[in-house]
Please model this.
Amino acid sequence: MTSSTTTTQAQIFPGKGLGFISASLHNVLTRVKSYPQTYPAIDLAYSPADPLRNPVILQLPSNGLRLRFDGPDQRLRLIEVLEFSRVNLVYKNQDVLKGGKSAEQPLSTQGPSFRHVYNRLFGPSYPGEYVPPAEKSPYGTYVLSYPGVAFSFPLQHSAWSDQCDFVALLSSSAALPATAMSIFQGASWPEVRDKLFTQQPQYPRSSALIGKSRESLADEIEEWQVLGAGRLEVIRRTGSAVPITLGATSFQDLIADFGPPDAIYRKNDRRISIHRATGGNDIHLSPSPGSIQDGDHSSNNSVTDDSDEELAAFNIGDPTSLPAECFLNYFHHGFDAFISHPTTPGPAFPNSGVHDPAVAPPSSQLTVTKIILHGNVPGSYPFNRHRRTRWMIPLDDNNCLTSESPYNEISEQLRTAWRGYYASPTEERALRRPMVLNRGWGDSPESSVEFLGGWEETTSKGHRAGGEGQDGGLGNTEMFGFPGLLFEVLKNGAVSCLTVY
Model:
């Protein structure tokens, strides 16, 4: 596919999207990677130092598109068409450019004229905004805005005047065809420009949920609240909050609230069993393989084993067909759940007013015993396997940790909260050492990892403590533990994964 013949057709939805391009970074990138012939080049730009607070930019150079997402939630905020000749734009069955529907009528290398936009496509508009030229260019830019969409027209600076009728001016020879088009949420570009990445999104993260009822698809998760003592609360987009209690919430409860999982997986990995704590539980891995509709998880170099063959034997609708321990993978919701026989979850947070959980009695019923929340951090090894999940940990009335908090802040607050938990300062310092995980080597544990109940050493109460700081090295992630919590942390301090147990 050459640059001169790329003619992807895309319907314009003002304020919403372009074709299937809408919603979240995970949704868009998964779909785009599923069509490599249509989208042969994908460029992703983000801040290596702070990828969760700065915007993420996805550029499709062969298609003339640039997409901008906010960092914390990874919602699509702005679609820019930079080369009209590379995409066949359609609005209400009307071509934005003449030609493009047949080989005899190739797309123009220029954008639409003002007359075509004004008379044929979007109709009358309020006056737009004129941007003077930079340096000594003879052309400035006139931005013509409609609700949810705007066009940029080069305009001779010498012809511009505040007193001119903009319709007459843009219809004259002083104006050139549009060089760019933008799609955004808002009444006009000047109104939305300053709050582009901070305003409340109007639509769900998944395009599959747009216009669908709660009965047909599971409601979208907005945020997880980690309350301690094995208690979590799931804040949903439209429905009421869903409580989850580790060791009590059943497999059936999870299916009822979030729908069937995208995959069910069991894996027994012995490669790190040397780190099993004496008297503690095994170390478990959650590789999350499998596929989703229009999905592409090729960014993960999965370690091959025979457990993939076991997937066909699991009947999602029949809990009795599940193995004794397995992971339910919810790629579109951004989390995994470990299903096992009930275990006693971690203790309550100090000064939270919540009582420690009771010891779990022996039971044959399978329950949720661990929840893995994925950060989908750009640059991380499992990037784009799950959509980004946001969470918060309210320690007390004055302190609250979030999924965007740098780990040094998280570590400082948690160490202060748990200061009286350790037998001695020496024990606390010893357990501050992280475990290093290299996801890039084929013979090392890959994907989502949870080291639960096992470490090089244990405290007198059987829990691990977290640490601070990270070393240089091989670009690895590091695992830091606190009672009931396990953080996977990147070198830049971003939390890639949080496991609650």
In short: Confidence is low (pLDDT under 50) at residues 1-5, 100-105, 269-313, 441-475. The chain has seven helices and 27 strands.
